[in-house]
Amino acid sequence: MCHGVVGSTEPSRTGTDAEEFAFFVALYPRLRRFAAVVADADMDPDDVVQDALTSALVLRPLSELDHPAAYLRRAIVRCVANRRRRARTWRRLLPQLAAGHVSEDHYPSDLAVLDHLSPLDRAVVFLLDVEGLTGPELATQLGVSPAAVRKRASRARAQLRSLLDETTSAAEPLPEEA
Amino acid sequence: MNRTSDILEERAERGHPRGDRAVWSAAVAESRFADEAVGRRPATVFRITVAAVAVALVAIGVVGLGRIVATDDDAALSAAEPGDDIDDGLPAPILIDGGRLGPRGVQRPLGADVDGVEMRTGPEDTASVVFADPADPFAATIVGLDLLEGGGFRPWGANLSDAPLEDTTRHAALTENGWGLSPESGLVEVARIESSTLDQLRFGWQFDFELGGGDRVTLQAEPVESPGVGEWLWISRVAQSAPSSPTVMAVPVLDTTGYVVTVPGQDGDEGVIWSDDAFVYRLTADRIEDDTAVPVDTTAHLDRLRLVDRGTWNEEVSAASQRGAGFSLSGLLVLLAILASLVFFVWHRLRWPAALLGFAIVTLVVWGSVPLRAGPVVFAAVVLAASWALHRRRWFSPRQGRLDPEHDGGDDRASSPGAAGHERR
Hints:
The complex is a heterodimer.
Chain A: H1 17-38, H2 45-59, H3 68-93, H4 95-99, H5 110-113, H6 119-129, H7 135-142, H8 146-171
Chain B: H1 2-12, H2 20-37, H3 44-72, H4 75-78, E1 94-96, E2 100-107, E3 125-132, E4 142-148, E5 153-158, H5 165-169, E6 172-175, E7 178-181, E8 188-193, H6 197-200, E9 205-212, E10 215-223, H7 230-241, E11 247-253, E12 256-262, E13 272-275, E14 279-289, E15 292-295, E16 305-307, H8 310-348, H9 351-366, H10 375-393, H11 400-403, H12 417-421
Antiparallel strand pairs in B: 1-16, 2-9, 3-4, 3-8, 4-5, 6-7, 9-10, 10-14, 11-12, 12-13, 13-14, 14-15
C-alpha cells in the first residue's frame, strides 16, 4: 500500500460496511480507468486502486472524506509516483538485480509512449481530454492551481504529440529507391 | 487530439479488472492490518517525546556503565585477586556457611581519609573514656564520658538496668587527666579512646552475605589504630545513637569472645562485635520483608562463621565483584532492549517489540537486584503510553491532514501531486 498518508488511527467506522462498499462501487469504474492511465504499463491498475483505497480506509471511512473521489485520485497519483521512485532506487542500488526487472518494449506501440510522461501529466491529460473535466475542476481534483494545470496540460500534450509523431515516423516504411 | 484521446481511452481499458468487490475486500483487510504492520510517520511532538525518552534511557545506561567501570577499576579489588597472599590492609578471611556474597556485596574503604559525617551539633569531643567493672568490663554497668572541647563531658552508658545513667554520673569528678569517675562509683577506667567521635567514624570493609529466603548477614570490619578499644568504639556508637541504653552480653565468636549489643524495645539486635589486632568486626543480621530490612537475632548465625584461607576468601570476593558487574551489565542490556523496543514499537508499530518491552519491564520488576532501578523505566513506559495515546488521536496533527493526502507528514517525497509530477523523465 502507499505509505505516508496521515492518520494512524483505525478507521472509526460510522457507516456500515455495506454502505461503505456501495460508496466504493460507485467510484470504482472511474478510479480503475484513471489508475490504468496513470500507472505505468507494468503496474496493475487494480493494485494501485487498492493501495489508494487502503490509505484512505486507514484514515477514515470513505463517507467521511470531504472529496473521496479527489482524494483517491490524488492518492493514486502519489502511489504511482512512489512506486516509480522505489523502482528507481532499487535499480540504482542493485543494478544487476534490477536489470532483470527492466521491461524492454520489443513491440513499441502508441500506448507505450504514455509511459514517457509522468503520472501527473498522464492524469492531467486524461482527465481533461477523456473525462471532460474543466481546468478549474481538475485543479481542485489534483490540488494544484489552475495556471499549473494549464501549463502542465499544454506541455504534456506537446510532449505526447511529439512522441506520437516519432513513433509514427519510425513505423512508416522507408520510401523505395527509384 | 483524437488520436491522443483514443490512446488514453485504450489505456484506460487495459487489463482485466479484478472487480470492485475483490479490490474492496483486499483494501479493507489491509487497512485493518496496516496500522500495525506498516505504521505512519509520527507527529513532531511525538518524535520529540520519544527522542527525550531515548536520551534519558541512554543517559541512565551511560551512568550505569560508568559506575561499573569505576567499580572494576578500584585498586582495592586488585589486592583480592585469587592466589594473592596479601594480608596487609585486609580484614580476616571470614566467610559464612550457606551464604554467598551478593552482587556488589563487597564494599571497600574508599580511602584512609574518608570519615563519617558529624553526628551532632555542639562542642566537639576530644576523647572518650570508658568506665566499667574491672572484674568483667562487658558484663556489668558501662559508662562512657566523651570529653568535650573547652571542658565538660557528654555521658553515655550500657548495661544500666540496675543504675540509671544520672546516678552514675553523679560520681563524675574533674581530675588531672580530665573528667573521670570517682572510686565511689565502683567503676574503673577500662579504655581511653584518644580521638574524637568524628575521627572514630572511619568507614571500613563491608561484606553482604545472602543466605536465601530473604535472610542476610552483614560483616563490617574497621581498622583500629589503638588495639584493645575496638569493641568500645562500636558500643559507644550504639549507645550514643540508641533511644535507650543498650545491653551488652558476651558470646563466643570464632574462638574468641564477642559481644552482642541489644537495644531494649527494638527488633533483633545491634549486632555482634569482636576484634583482633587490626580490625574490629561487627556482624548484623536482617531479613527482607516487603523491601524493608528487619533486624533479627544475629547470634543465630554465629556458628556459620568460618575463618578460611586467604586464597579462598579472595576468590569469593572476586566472584562477588564479577557478579555485581554482570548484574550491572544485565541491567544495561535490559535497558537497551527497552530502548530498542520503544523505538521499534512506536516507529514501526510492530507487536514483537511491544512484547519485548513488556518482557523487559517484567524482568526489571521481578529481578529486583538489577542495580538500575525500575523507576526510570516505568516513567518511560508511562510517557510512552501517553505519547502513544496522543499520537493515536492525532491531537498534534493538522486537521487538514486527515482529509488531504498531501498533508501526510510522511517520508514519501512524492507525497503531493506537484512532487509526483516532477519525476525525471
